[in-house]
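Posting for a labmate who doesn't have an account.
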Amino acid sequence: MKYTKSQEEIEILAEGGKILHDILQRTVEMVAPGVTTAELNDFVELVIPELQRRGRFRRNYRGRTLRDHLGLRRPKHPATR
């Protein structure tokens, strides 16, 4: 079964990948001997509100699936075409 992504879906995934990369990169830099869990928590408490401010980390989700949360249309099942 093959699903083709729209240009909009590809852009959403690409942007999400960049955000995730940046967060993971920073997290890897922080996780080291001597860094406390309190320092990691401080990082999270700074990053999440900033991502929310930018509209990149949602607080409330609509729908029940990731596709619903992202506002993407459901593709027709191949058997119904």
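Reply:
Got it, the structure tokens are right above this. Residues 20 and 61 are 19 Å apart (CA to CA).
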